[in-house]
Structures are given as C-alpha cells and as structure tokens.
Specification:
The structure holds 2 protein chains of 2 kinds. Chain A is an alpha+beta fold. Chain A has 3 domains: 119 residues, Orthogonal Bundle (Butyryl-Coa Dehydrogenase, subunit A, domain 1); 92 residues, Butyryl-CoA Dehydrogenase, subunit A, domain 2; 145 residues, Butyryl-CoA Dehydrogenase, subunit A, domain 3 (Up-down Bundle). In chain A, 52% of the residues lie in helices and 15% in strands. Chain A is built from 11 helices and 9 strands. Chain A has a 5-stranded mixed barrel. In chain B, 55% of the residues lie in helices and 13% in strands. The radius of gyration of chain B is 23 Å and the shape is globular. Classes of the chains: A alpha+beta, B alpha+beta. Chains A and B meet through strand 8, helix 7, helix 8, helix 9 and helix 10 of A and helix 3, strand 9, helix 16, helix 17 and helix 18 of B.
C-alpha cells in the first residue's frame, strides 16, 4: 500500500519486487548459510547496481535523496523473500541519516564515490538504543583528535565495513556522542561474525577499541538527539521490513494450504487452519495500512509522524512474530525445514523486532514521549 | 444434604469430576516410593546437564550448522555410557526400571538445556513405547535385550518410530483420517512375512537407531483396519536411509528419510497386524486407534515436558539477563514490568508441568503404565533380585500366552472412557507445554533485545528448537481436536468430527 502514495514509489516497488523474486529468492537458502558459507557479494553488487544503496543518501551528496517512504518500499519488497539484504540497507541508511543530520556531507559524498558496494557499508549498532548500553566505549581527547577505547557488542556490518558509526562517551561528559572509527586500524579488534537468530547475511560482530583514532560526528553529547531523530524516521522502514516478511509468510502458507491434502481434502478446507490463515491475512492487511499511514504522515510532514512511525513499528513487529509463528505452523514439518522460506521468516521476524532497541523498552519509551 | 444418586448424577455432568480430578484419584493408588525415585531421576538429569548437556549444547548446534550431515554419535554414546537408554526399561525386561512418569521430569530437565539432546534420548523411548503398545511381549523383550546389550558393549542400540510419510502427517495419527488420506507405505503379506515398499520422512533418530518401529499398511485403500506394525532392523535388505532434513532447530537430532524397496520383514518381526488383531474384542480399526492412543498418550506427555523444558530454558536465560543488566541506572530485575514478565514466564512453565503430570497420572491409572504402577507389581519388580527375574520371568516372556494375556488386559479390559481420558489429557499436556515453550521464548527474546539474538547467549537456539514441538507428535491443532474428541465430544453425542458430514 505504501507504493500507492505516488507513481514513483509504485515503480520502485515493482523494481524491488522483481529483484526480490529473481535475485534473492533463488539464492535464499545458500545466502543464509553465512558465516559458514560465503557472503552474498554478487547479490549485494546487483543491489548496488540498481542504486538501492543510494536511495536514502541526500542528492547533494550524490545520492537519490528519496526519503523514508521510498526506502520502506524497497525494504518491504526485499524482505518478502529474504530480509538480510534489507538489513544491510537499513543499517547503512541509519548511519547515513545520522551523518546527514550532522551536515557531514564530505563523508556522505565519499560514500557515493566508492568503487565497490562493500565500501558503502557503514557499521552501526542498529539492534539497540545506545541509551540502554551501560558501558559505551570512551573517547578521550588527544593532541591528534579523539582516541577510542572500550568494547561494543553486536556492531552490525562490523565485520564487513571499513568504517563504523560508534556511540561513545567523550571523557568527562555525560550523554553519548557519535564518532566515526576506522575498523581496519590495527588498534581495533573484531570478533568472528556472530551467529544470530535471523538476518544471517547481515552479520554483526563484537568490537574492541584500544586507543583507536576516531572522529567526532556532529556535536558532542548530542548522540541521543541524533539517534532519536534517526529512529523516528527509520521505525517506518523497520515496520516495512516486518511487513514484507509477513506478506511472504502469508503467501507461502496460503499457497501451500491450497495444495496440501490431509484427511482427503485440501488443508485450507480444515476450518481451524482456515481460521489461522484468515487471521494471518487480517494481520497483513492491518499492518499494510499501518505502514502506509505512517509513510503518508512522513510524506506530509504531519506533526505526529514520529509517534505514528513508532506505534506502527511496535505493532507490526509484534504482529510479524505472531504471524510467522503461524506461518511455520500452517505448513507443519515442511514449514520447519530449511528448503522452504517459512522457517527463515520466523527467525527474521523475531530478529527484526529488536531493531532500534528491545521491544518492551521501546514500548515504555513510547508512553514517556506522550 | 444430597443423596448418593444425586452425587453420582451431578459429578457425571460435563466436565465430569473424574476427568478433572485425575491426580487426586491417582495419588493414593500409586506407590509412594515413586516420588523418591523421581527425585533421583531429576538429580541424575541435573548432573548429566551440568557435566554433558550444557557444556556441549551450543557446540553441537554449531557443528550441525556447519556440517548438517554430522551424526551426533559422540553424544549418543555418552548418553549410553550414562545408562540413559535403559533407565526406563522395566526390570522385568532387564532394565533399570525407573517409573515411566519420571521420564517426563527427566526430559524437562534435559530439554531446558538442549531440546535436541532431550530428543536424542526421548525418541528412543517413543520407539520403545510404540513397541510396547503392540503388547507383543516376545519382541519387546528382544528390543530391550538389544538395548541392554548396546549399553554393555558401548555400541548404542536405539529404537525409532517410522510413522510420518511424505503425503501423510496428520493422517497417520487418526484412523478416521487415514482412510480418506493418502498413506503410501505398503506392506504386502507373503509367505513367512511382509514385503514393504514406501518411504517414511522426518523420522527422529532414524540414522542413529538400530531398530525402527515401522507402521505400514496392507491395504492402502483401507489402512485403518490393515495397519501392520513391524520391527525393522538397520541393515535389513531393501531398507536404506535417505536424506537428513535441514531443520531450523533441534539440529543435533537427525530427522531422517527411511526408504523401503521390496524389503522383506519376517513374521517373527511383526509386532501387530490384522491377523493378530482378530483375537481382540474391538474391531481392527478401533484397535489400531487404541494402539495409536496408547503410544501417543505416553509420548505427547513427553513432548509437553519438552515444551516445559523450553519454557524453563527461556525463563532461565531471561532471568539471568535481568539479573545482570541495567536499565535507566537500575538493575533490570528491579523494574516491576520485568518482575511481572518473569512471573508470567514462571506461570507458563508451571501450568505446562501441571498438565503433563496430570496426563501421566491418567496413563498410570488407565493406560500403558497401569500394570507396573500397581503397588503390588511395583514393589514386586523392585524387590525381586535380578537373578530371580532372569531365571523365572524372562524365559516366560517368549511364551505366546503371555502376549495373549497382556493383550487381554490392555486391549480388551481398557474401557472407551479410559482411552478418552488418557488420550485427551495427553493432548492437553502436549499443546499446553509446547505453546508455553514458544510463548516464553518470545517473551525472553523481547526482554533480552540484541543479546537474545546471539547464538552464544542460548535463547535464540531454544526458540528455534521449541518451534518444532508445536508440530511433531501431532500438530497442536490436531491435538486440540483430539482433546475435543476425547474430553468434550463424548458429552455431546451428535457432534461430528474431522469434517464428517
């Protein structure tokens, strides 16, 4: 439904859906073997060649500057088959959003000037709210700039990117700041890719800095402001990813239920299963409307757009975990096996629920914001 | 106040008091020593968890992700060394003879650390239960003897159940559905045995088992009254293993494809067939449903215990996280919403446990466990020295009259009401426990945020493992229907089940 907001979004949806079906679907199982199998470089290159990575980069930095609704359209379509690529795009876009807020055009321009898609990766801890981390890395002021020390868990794309946007406490100050760190510097230690529940081809690592050089991004102690502004926009994109997963899960369960027979009749004719599928269909429709409404609020710069985005994300993410549980159930043992997409969607939906922070904490912050 | 006739009438009204007070009726009837025995089993499980399961659970899961073809013999041999495959083999058959309900407590313990490993142990007893449900005492004795020999030699001799087919999952669990469905594993009667053709899928422990309790059908058009139960040994000509499924979770426990190509099974390995069933009180279709109810009444309570194990594992990881994390400058566990969430998780696992305990009380009073839980028989088997059993009882078990006697006692003397209460409560335990498992996994992962997503923090593995519990041993939807059939529909005689018009 987001694509119905304008023609441009409609075209974008068609392109992303085609990419999803032709590029992501055939390799879904193989791509999900990371870190035991290879990283899906060729898929990322194809996504780069159709400018998915440029969608949210401002035009003045050489990007397409298309905003959150356009990004959401792409992420939703991709996530219907495989959320990992969408997770990468989400992570890069979150970092780009923060860099754009700080007016840091040089770093953004550098992103669009790269030669390989992986060079566009900026690692960023997108599965948390930095406010909830008790031991953020510390940045000390030195004669040469800032020096970063300490550890950070679950830095998404940290094993693949050259640079990372790190929330850190500048020594002696309260309130976190963002710094840009060079992950290839010898003082930086990165763990092996962490085996995660979902989005396995969008991997995270634990990272340790030992007096590593870094650069302040934006103003000191303004990290919370930047994160909040970014998440107010990116919650819509997160909701769109969960929506895509829901659509994929429902579609696969629905098609299977019309073919598979038990007790001499198609299982869709078992009314208990029909009820389950009906609930799934209703969840998809509700989620679709919610995300479209949140995008519309974003497009029209409605005063309550941030709250709309957060409410949509929390609700859709929760629906997605419920729906994908049923999505596996509707297909029985077959849904639990890796050669079908349902089990991956079940894992991905739960992983996506943690985007931008733990779900209950996000809910508590929602009421605090009213 | 109230007459005896009135008491009887009121207590018979739905829900019948006897249906909702099983544990109260059972406690005084069962041997009191069972509790001490169960305590010992739980302590042994916790020791095994500490020394074997917890240190190896993540490694095994990781190994299987890296190499899905790996067969976890290293764990099976360890479990064999610890005597876990004979712990619940009755003393009459030479085993250690722990009471059957205690296996659920054991499986909850192991399942709270690793459901795959719990399955690697538990499925052996599912196979054993299926063998027992035929009451073919001579063959049961042989299966037990092989398992015991496997323990002594260090070469585990496990038993699996080969039931599910590519086109028939739910269908093979209800005789009423079987005849409308599309079962395909055919057993053709020939001189001296059966020739089997067909494929079985999703067979837990298939590649690891020496014996397979194969359910096949002599007449594919009328499987409910032509079911053939066979004991098939690995290595039998015409029997081979196909692929191992790539599952989301419970990766350490293989789900195998078993293929039968003109596989000849001799008469001495026929656990039960129509010929043997002719001598029983019920018709063949009803007897086959009774057999299914016998083994599912035991195994569904076990899967309920797996679910409670998952609920408990998720609860444990969430509690650990809450005790070691902070939010807004305060320990996470000091927040009221976290305390309520943990209380909810505790409730989920406690209610799941109550459900499987109740189901086991029913099976002890009315089902498969009945004989060995009668006080006289229980203490007789406990107190009789092994050499006496070996000398006097074991040789008798080969006699056809013993099988006939057991079948009389179990098949003919079990009432419809007893079948319903054992089967219905087992289904209740199955879907209550496994739904509780998944519910707690969701709650744990939500509380833990990004920490819950990591393999090394265990919660995500518990979630992947737990989802299968809602599917196998009858989907939770089928189990709800079975509860309706057994505990509700009996009070509403005109009700139609399974889409019957």
């Amino acid at each position: 439904m987001i694509a119905g907001l304008n023609k441009e979004l409609n075209m974008l949806e068609k392109a992303a859906t085609e990419f999803s079906r032709k590029i992501l679907f055939p390799e879904r199982e193989a791509n999900d073997t990371f870190p035991f199998g290879p990283f899906f470089d060729s898929t990322v290159e194809k996504a780069y060649s159709v400018d998915f990575f440029h969608t949210s980069i401002p035009e003045e930095a050489g990007g397409m500057g298309q905003g959150t609704p356009a990004l959401s359209v792409i992420l939703e379509a991709l996530s219907a088959e495989d959320s990992s690529l969408a997770g990468i795009l989400f992570t890069v876009s979150a970092a780009v959003d923060i860099l754009a807020q700080t007016g840091n055009m040089d770093d953004l321009k550098a992103l669009t000037a790269v030669k390989t898609p992986k060079d566009m990766f900026i690692a960023c801890p997108v599965f948390c709210n930095p406010l909830d981390i008790t031991d953020l890395p510390q940045a000390k002021k030195t004669a040469d700039g800032l020096s970063l020390s300490g550890s950070l868990e679950y830095l998404t794309l940290g094993g693949l990117a050259k640079k990372a946007l790190i929330p850190a406490l500048v020594a002696g100050e309260s309130g976190f700041s963002y710094v840009l760190a060079d992950l290839e510097h010898p003082t930086v230690t990165r763990s092996a890719p962490i085996l995660s529940l979902g989005l396995r081809a969008c991997p995270s690592v634990d990272v340790t800095f030992n007096q590593s050089p870094c650069r302040l991004v934006g103003e000191e102690r303004k990290g919370e402001t930047y994160f909040t502004a970014m998440s107010d926009r990116m919650h819509v994109a997160a909701a769109a990813m969960s929506l895509g997963v829901m659509k994929g899960s429902f579609k696969e369960a629905f098609e299977y239920a019309r073919k598979r027979k038990q007790g001499g009749r198609e299982i869709i004719r078992w009314s208990e299963l029909k009820m389950m599928l009906s609930n799934m269909a209703i969840h998809v429709k509700v989620a679709d409307m919610l995300v479209a409404q949140a995008c519309s609020a974003m497009e029209s710069a409605a005063p309550d757009r941030a709250m709309a985005a957060r409410a949509a994300a929390l609700h859709v993410q929760s629906l997605a975990t419920e729906l994908t549980t049923d999505g596996v159930q509707a297909m029985g043992g077959v849904g639990y096996m890796k050669d079908f997409g349902q089990e991956k969607r079940f894992r991905d939906a739960k992983q996506l629920q943690a985007l931008l922070g733990a779900s209950p904490v996000k809910r508590l912050r929602y009421i605090d914001s009213l | 106040m109230i007459s005896k006739r009135e008491i009887k009438a009121f207590l018979a009204k739905h829900p019948a008091f006897d249906d909702i007070s099983v544990s109260q009726q059972a406690v005084s009837k069962q041997p009191s020593a069972m509790l001490a025995e169960t305590r010992k089993v739980v302590a042994y499980a916790r020791k095994f968890n500490e020394e074997v399961v917890r240190p190896y659970a993540l490694t095994l899961d990781m190994t299987m992700q890296e190499n899905p073809a790996h067969l976890p013999w290293e764990f099976v041999k360890k479990a064999n060394d610890w005597g876990l495959y004979t712990l619940w083999i009755p003393k009459l058959f030479g085993g250690k003879g722990f009471n059957f309900p205690s296996i659920c407590a054991f499986l909850e313990e192991i399942g709270s650390e690793c459901l795959a490993m719990a399955n690697l142990i538990g499925v052996h007893y599912l196979g054993f239960a299926v063998g027992c449900s035929s009451w073919n005492v001579r063959l049961i004795k042989q299966l037990c003897a092989d398992t015991l020999q496997g323990e002594q030699s260090g070469e585990p001799a496990l038993i699996s159940l080969a039931l599910t087919e590519p086109g028939a999952g739910t269908d093979v669990e209800e005789t009423e559905l079987m005849d409308k469905g599309s079962v395909s594993c055919h057993a053709k009667k020939v001189d001296g045995g059966y020739i089997v053709n067909g494929t079985k899928v999703f067979i837990s422990n298939g590649h690891l088992s020496r014996w397979h309790m194969l359910i096949a059908y002599a007449d594919l058009g009328k499987p409910s009254s032509s079911t053939v139960m066979l004991a098939v040994e690995t290595g039998t000509k015409g029997f081979s293993f196909g692929r191992m499924e790539k599952k989301m979770g419970q990766k350490g426990c293989p789900a195998s494809e078993l293929m039968f190509d003109n596989c000849f099974i001799p008469d001495e390995n026929v656990l039960f067939d129509a010929e043997q069933g002719k001598k029983l009180k019920r018709g063949l279709s009803e007897t086959n449903m009774q057999i299914i109810d016998f083994y599912f009444a035991a195994s569904r309570a076990g899967v309920g215990a797996f679910g409670v194990g998952a609920a408990r594992g998720a609860y444990r990881e969430a509690l650990n996280y809450a005790m070691t994390s902070e939010l807004n400058g305060r320990p996470l566990i000091d927040h009221e919403w976290v305390q309520c969430l943990l209380a909810e998780m505790y409730k989920n696992m406690a209610l799941g446990r109550f459900a499987y305990l109740e189901a086991n009380y029913a099976t002890g009073m009315h089902g498969m466990y009945k004989l060995l839980q009668q006080k006289q028989m229980y203490y007789l088997t406990k107190l009789t020295p092994k050499f006496v059993i070996d000398k006097t009882i074991l040789p008798l078990l080969d006699k056809p009259w013993v099988t006939a006697l057991m079948r009389k006692a179990y098949f003919d003397m079990q009432s419809e009401r007893e079948i319903d209460i054992t089967s219905g409560l087992a289904s209740l335990a199955k879907f209550s426990g496994t739904d509780a498992g998944i519910r707690n996994c969701h709650l744990a992962l939500e509380l833990m945020g990004q920490s819950g997503l990591r393999h090394d923090r265990r919660a995500e593995k518990i979630m992947r493992d737990a989802k299968l519990l809602q599917i196998y041993e009858g989907t939770n939807q089928l189990n709800r229907l079975n509860l309706f059939k057994c505990l509700i529909a009996s009070g509403t005689p005109d009700v139609k089940m399974f889409g019957r018009q």
